[in-house]
Design brief:
Blueprint (H helix, E strand, L loop, with lengths): L12 H14 L3 H21 L5 H12 L6 H13 L2
Helix pairs in contact: 1-2
Length: 88
């Protein structure tokens, strides 16, 4: 079993009551409810920021530009370096 860690949050009364009502309606504790929400939502958010979505036309243009034998500009080299650092 993994270690249990604590997260403390501050929220307004309306939000607190909302999460309490929703967790009760779901038949679970506030902790279980919030944990389920985080585990469901966080991977989607992380996927969105880690993905690049292109239309077919954009992809075709990208492949065309990449296929050219022109020397890479310093700006493109710097952008590629930053993407490498970020793990793309």
């Amino acid at each position: 079993m993994s270690a249990v860690n604590r997260i403390d949050i501050r929220t307004d009364l309306e939000t607190k009551q909302l999460v309490e009502r929703a967790s009760a309606a779901s038949g679970c504790t506030v902790t279980q409810y919030l944990t389920r929400l985080i585990r469901t939502d966080a991977p989607k958010i992380l996927e969105e920021v880690a993905s690049i979505r292109l239309t077919n036309e954009q992809f075709d243009h990208f492949i065309d530009v990449c296929s050219r034998e022109e020397p890479l500009s310093d700006k493109i080299k710097e952008t590629a370096r930053k993407l490498d650092i970020e793990g793309f």
